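In this supplementary section we document a worked example of the pipeline. Step one takes a protein sequence of length 560 as its only input; no multiple sequence alignment statistics are reported here. Step two produces a three-dimensional model, which step three serialises into structure tokens for compact storage. The input and output of this example are shown verbatim.
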Amino acid sequence: MNRHIYQISPFLLLLFLTWACSERDSRSLTNGQFAHWKFAGDARDHSGANRHALVRGEMNFNAQGPTGQSGTAVEFTGKKAWLELASDEAPRLGTGDFSISVWINLRKNDRDVSGDLLSQFDSVNQTGFHLSTKTQAVTTSLANFSQVHFGINANQASDWKDYGSPDSTLGAFSLTSFEGSLYAGLSHPEKDKSGNVFRLDSLNRWIDCGSPDGSNSVMALAIFNDELYAGTGKYRFAGSSLPESENLTKGGRIMRYAKNGQWIPAGELPDTEAIGGLVVYKGDLYASSLYQPAGFFRLEEGTTWVDCGTPDGKRVVALAVYDGYIYASSYDSGNVYRYDGQSWTDCGQLGDNTQTYSFVVYHGKLYVGTWPSGRVYRFDGLNNWADVGRLGTELEVMGMLVHNGTLLAGTLPLAEVYAYAGDTTWKKLTRLDHTPNVRYRRAWTMAENQGTLYCSTLPSGKIFGFELGKNVLSPSPLSGGWHHLAAVKSKNKLALFLDGGLVASSEIDPTDVYDLDADVPLKIGFGANNYFNGKMASLRLYQRALNPQEIVFLADPDNL
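The serialised model returned by step three reads:
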């Protein structure tokens, strides 16, 4: 009997194995699938479970998806629009594993606002999960810019950890997350010492990144064009009831941190002693002056700062982007002003306050901290401010941000930290600065990095860390254009994947039990932060942990 031996070429073998693996992965992706919203012209569920989402508000279901084909994505406008599964249809996650797979597109010039992608969180019981893009302006700095956050909680919180006082500073006026590390802009009153920047490394050591200039403080930090920028200043310590600095060098400069560790000049604000705030708005970097004369400027051509005017000569200091505008606090009145790229509008005075100090966006609304009432106000429209309560007996509300679904705020004069409990109720979490024999202690500013919330204090100069539940945060800003995201909660780990690759993970202590059952609706495009502004395609929710091979398969647009 004749026997024929056939040889298969390596190319054909590879092609066959690739096809076989694709078929296997494709079949496995129906296992444990709770819902699959393709957004192919509507919000219907294509998993076979008929978990069709309710449309809340106006959105475009005819948008182009990752392959460029119209009608394969939904476009959210960031204007009070989201999709929803009612609480009786929403998942009951319990203590089990779950995964999220989704394609999103952030327009390049719209990365300056936060937006929730998928959320089921009971804010009363502090239970549930979030998948979000996060941009947070905290006091003078852009603390987080276009980073992806995945978090879970079941009413659990860590202890506060003392990370020390980097370089024996009196205070870190600015904090930001950059390339996976926390950066702190420090202040020094000594005559022979200037403000500098330190980085917290993976071993919790403070690494000196140098002094941008000779002034006594690094007042503001921001991420712009995926690079770190710093604003300098000659801070007047008498404003914190401390002896004035012996360093008389004027600040007001903007510096860019180069890859070789050097600080490169990026221009100087005219007639500016100290930078008041930095923010990114529609793809441009803006800066303000802390002291008189009032000033507000936009960066052009790398080093030129163009005067954009101020509202009636009033100082605009802390800056935040919300609902298509820059909003600005003022130290010359208890007002808030907003800028549309051309001109200023007065949004009204907040109670009897003489200063507005800080911003945060929470559940799609803008909140503002004040002096001297120690109250927070919610913006409900021009000249319409709702008083949402005083933080204990404190006088000033400083850094505020939303951490894993909870609004937190720091104060003066006792450097306390509070959590917002709704209506006009604030719950005290801790006091961070116990420096004796001083008039003011400040919980100055905040930032999130690698899932941890950090808060700086003055005059102890310490930085503290804290975590609600468990969190992961992407190390770098999400660029414009289409990206695939996967978030996986397994028994002992949270993991975040970008375009098929692991970018962040966090171990879950085996003794911690996270029962994520939350009797609230599942929301797509909205949550504790803000309404999503961008496009979304092929959202899948699983009640199991996806494996890395499945995530790579889902991250291929040919497999949509």
